[in-house]
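#structure-requests
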Amino acid sequence: MIDIIIEVLISVIALVVTLGILVTIHEFGHFWVARQCGVKVLTFSIGFGKPFKKWTGNDGVDYVLAPIPLGGFVRMLGENDFLENEMRDIHECDKRRSFESKSALQRIAITAAGPIANFLLAVIVFWLVNIIYGSSGISPIVSSVIPESAAAVAGIEKGDEILSVDGASTRIWKDVSQRLIARMGETGSIRFEISKKESGSVINIVVPIEQWMNESTAPDPLRELGIIEIEIPAIVGEVFEGGAADEAGLLEQDKIIRVNDLEIRGWAHWVEVIRASSELETLVVVEREGRLQTIVIIPERKLLGDGVYIGVIGAASAITNFDQIVSEEMRREVSYSLVEGVVPAITDTWDKAVFILGSVQKMVVGLISIKNVNGPITIAQVAGNTASYGLDVYLQFLGLLSVSLGVMNLLPIPVLDGGRLLFIFLEVITGSPLPERIQAYGMQIGVMLISGIMLLAVFNDVNRLL
């Protein structure tokens, strides 16, 4: 119970810190550029709800801290000057300092400054990770291929090295996964450039896909294709009391040899077989102290968040030394100087922005499930987990979330920065601001859309917990 409370506290603190950083940077972008353009800023607020801290600075700005860290705002003089009643409320000498009195270019700069600040934060975060921790990973050399899988049928074999995916170089397995997950929901083919182990020749292999992983909420693109990157030995490290494995007599250090006459390649294969054997009598041959023994396990049925049932037995793999699994020659590490770390950071930010925008587009047209929309609960869990894994992992998550916030705010939805930019662009095209009534309708539609998205995100979060 205490462990659960501590875990929840860590998640909540991580959520508040993470969103606090992102919201502050975002709003400061609007604030700073507005001041540079001569706009009078009235309020700078971090968080929503009843303020627990409020003060007026020497610059005349009301600074506000509120308890709900899901957003913030910068209120500027005359943001709605196109409304006649707003015009009457502004003193004549202040009109030149109002937001709406500024040129279209200045208003575009002020509005876009928030998302741009988030992109700049992401670049800085990724740059820090590069120069402090460098880049490391495992060479994308195939450990094994699941028989009759899409990869096996296409001709990918054990020992093949994946040089590129769809023309993009893949130095480590992380690169491969990122390139593959970008194809989620699509129909067509994925092109691999492969270096064959035996001959050393380089060939192109094409793997067809159709509505690929479109319903998945926890996509594993390599496993979907049947590619195993690292094969962990199928050795039991822990058996949980009261589980199906415990009742069947499975012991720690048992090595799984066969399941229903199927040879087990490794722990991932063993998990895959058990997940597919919910409530089925399963004959398991194990090697125990040098001798083969057969036990019968009936995996329990478990419902996942996406409505899929799987089999579980209550066992964990043995803690295997990383050096035993991955040889020295398979590891790739790159260190960066202060200057060398800049370009990869910019590239990483751009790639993530393109991926997020592409994912949003796929959700809109129905290529991938809306169950992938995450809310504050999931963000809190991930933030807490990444913080416990180490500073480098947390910084990567912070950078990704900052890119996501920047992209989402640029969507052309009224109430978001992108919606305001849309109104300004239409004003430039038509030569005059949109009618008050049209803008009011747009704001109402925007509020409904954002409210609906938030409700969907919270629903998905709760559904994952059940």
